[in-house]
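Field notebook, page 371. I keep forgetting to write these up properly, so this time I am using the form the group agreed on. The chain and the ligand, flavin-adenine dinucleotide, are recorded exactly as supplied. Prediction of the bound pose follows.
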Amino acid sequence: MTHPMHINTDVLIVGGGPSGTSAAISLLLYSDLSVTIVEKSNLSTTKVGEHVSASVLDLTDYLKLDRKEVIDQCTVPSYSSTSYWGSDLPSRNDSIFTTENESYQLDRQEFDFMLLKKVVDLGGKVVPRMSCKNYEQTDDNHWSIKATHTEHGEININCKYLIDATGRKSNVCRQVGIPTTTIDKLIGVGTFLQANTNQKIPHRQIIETIEYGWWYTSQLPNNTIAVTLFTDADIISEHKLSETANWNTALAETKHLKHIVSGMISKSPKLYVRDAGSKITNTSQKANFIAIGDAAVSFDPISSMGIGFAMTSGCHAANLVSTQLKVNSNLTSVQYQKDLQNHFMQYLQTKKNYYQQEKRWSSSTFWSRRN
Ligand SMILES: Cc1cc2nc3c(=O)[nH]c(=O)nc-3n(C[C@H](O)[C@H](O)[C@H](O)COP(=O)(O)OP(=O)(O)OC[C@H]3O[C@@H](n4cnc5c(N)ncnc54)[C@H](O)[C@@H]3O)c2cc1C
């Protein structure tokens, strides 16, 4: 009989996206704690979400990544955004929620991979293709976790501190009984389109509202664009918008976007469907546990706040974890939660103001919910 493998680590981070890797790098750079990241994917799944304000570079500086390498290897040329929001006349701005002029379009695969590589370079462990399934807290508030690896089978993990960095589904929070407050059920349904070699694709994001939501397109490397329709879950079900034929019809009915994507070819027959709603979790009452990134607070993608917040919250959490393990008090968790709550309330107000600028369909289900 073979015995399950064991991992002992000070901090276990579940999820290897920008929040998890930022927390890991901060811990490895600025504390003596050992860190393991468990990631359920094989690291090659397609990531969406790519528009960031230039302040993301201050975060990569803090994480001691080479700024030039980040720009050269992980971004496509600098951007602006054109939106048909509230009017058929285009308006231009770089980032809707911030006053910063400069923004970047990330190559998410490259960017997330660069962060993971930094974790490994600093001596952290990254275990892909592994899912945690059972979390038990011991009397001293440490954690005993059962995980399954696609090749190595059952693995037991012991850690002092557990971090949920699993993204919007807040998988760990749900399993350890942490409540979530959900504001809306926005969903993004989209695909990647390939332009042919002599087709010029615009170096900007394009946003166009319609009666039941809004469309968004952004340029990615290799002459590809991501095109996503954002609307509510019930509207998607009602109009069967996750079916390619219906989604294509809706795209063909846009006024502006249809001209941009004309002649481009879909890279996959299947559409991606992603949660994109706003929500917040509250982890302050659970000892030796914290949620970061989308697992803690999820923002509407119109804000372009997700990646920046994921990284910032990861860095803050790292600081909090090393303090808590030294002084054995959860006061810093209470403050962290208050900060998240304040940030979220400000965001909700800004989002409301932004959605209110679209008055053309104010009585439709989608827009009346947001006004
Ligand atoms: C359609 C769309 C467009 C977006 N556009 C933008 C944008 O333009 N700009 C922006 O800033 N943000 C955008 N976002 C948001 C942005 O993608 C997220 O905020 C960001 O990825 C959050 O990072 P994270 O590390 O918290 O989570 P994620 O990036 O979701 O990473 C979570 C990781 O955890 C892993 N995982 C999940 N469950 C488990 C488990 N049980 N065990 C192990 N691993 C697990 C997942 O495989 C994943 O790798 C967009 C989101 C959507 C849906």
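OBSERVATIONS:
- The two ends are 62 Å apart (CA to CA).
- The chain has two domains: 5-76+108-183+278-354, 186-276.
FOLLOW-UP: compare against the apo run.
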